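Quick one, T. Sequence first:
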Amino acid sequence: MQQEQQPANGINIEITEEVAEGSYANLAIITHSHAEFVIDFVNVMPGTPKSKVKSRIIFTPQHAKRFMKALAENVQRYEAANGSIKDLEEVQIPLTFGGPAAQA
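Structure tokens:
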């Protein structure tokens, strides 16, 4: 009889089928306050004047820094295995959040 072994201090993480499908995003908008970092993931389609936030993740500053380090480490591993990722030219996208643009 085979038993599943779990590390003594392991965490059992489950994912629903819906979440496992993921959401595509080609834009991330990052804002912060003294207490949190907010990352909004958006799918901007060419030729459409309006896009919706697909997902919002809220981090404490400490978790945002840990996430940044983990992402940088994974990009380095990816590039070591697959070659350098070419950076896109910076694209300026005017952003408005559901209301008229601010005027001075």
